[in-house]
Write a structure and sequence with these properties.
This protein is mostly helical. The chain contains 8 helices and no strands. Helix 2 packs across helix 4.
């Protein structure tokens, strides 16, 4: 999807909901600046960011992005993100620890990711 089209769609949905960029940012745990960059087509949001925004609008992520997630890796990433939402902070920390161990086993440096 084109980042300008996506940005405009998010902007329209935000206005329909009567939210400012700041309020959308608060509700989605993002900064107002990040929302602005997305809406203005400066940046393409990650799947995680799209997931947060779609929850505020109460629509599926693929409806928001107008995509059909076919790439297997993207499907797994989205499935993991959705499941993480049901966990508390302690369990999320455990999951992060598991992921860190897998990264270590595969020789992937964690500081590159953060």
């Amino acid at each position: 999807m084109d980042k300008n089209v996506l940005g405009n769609k998010i902007k329209q949905l935000r206005k329909v909901k009567g939210l400012s960029q700041e309020k959308l940012g608060e509700k989605s745990d993002l900064t107002q600046q990040h929302i602005s960059r997305i809406e203005n087509g400066i940046t393409m949001p990650s799947i995680s960011t799209l997931s947060k925004i779609s929850k505020v609008f109460n629509i599926p992520i693929d409806d928001l992005a107008d995509i059909d997630i076919r790439d297997r890796e993207d499907k797994y990433t989205l499935a993991i993100i959705k499941k993480l939402d049901f966990l508390g902070i302690e369990d999320k920390c455990k999951v992060e620890g598991y992921i860190d161990r897998i990264l270590d086993e595969n020789g992937i440096e964690k500081h590159i990711i953060k």
